[in-house]
Amino acid sequence: CEFVAHLADREIAARQSGRREEARQLWAAERQFLTTHLLTWGGKFCADLSALASVEFYQAVARLGRGLFNDERIRAETNR
């Protein structure tokens, strides 16, 4: 998601510049958006896509998406 990428880029820049509090706030915003929006439907969407796709390309996209959503869920839960 472009919004999460924007927040992540700003978080990285803040960390690299030593602005820890700003980085912490940006990560909190990322985590909130992920847990209240993307992670609520993303995994189901990928599972549905995988089940319904007849073209290997879209099945691969679904697998990639499921892995990404799983990684982001773990990251959000462990506060990293």
Shape: elongated
Supply the helix-strand structural class.
mainly alpha
Largest sheet: none
What gap, in angstroms, lies between the N and C termini?
Answer: 18 Å
Can you tell me the residue ranges where pLDDT is under 50 for at least 5 consecutive residues? none
Question: How many β-strands, per DSSP?
Answer: 0
Question: What's the order of the H and E elements?
Answer: HHH
What number is the mean pLDDT? 93
* Total domain modules: 1
Helix content: over 70%
> Approximately what portion of the residues adopt beta-strand conformation?
under 5%
Radius of gyration: 15 Å
Number of helices: 3
| Oligomeric assembly | single chain
Describe this protein's structure:
The relative contact order is 0.12. It is elongated and about 50 Å long. Helix 2 (about 20-50) runs antiparallel to helix 3 (about 55-80). The chain has one domain (about 1-80). The model has no long low-confidence stretch (mean pLDDT about 95). Helix content is about 90%, strand content about 0%. The protein is built from three helices and no strands. It is mainly alpha-helical and about 80 residues long.
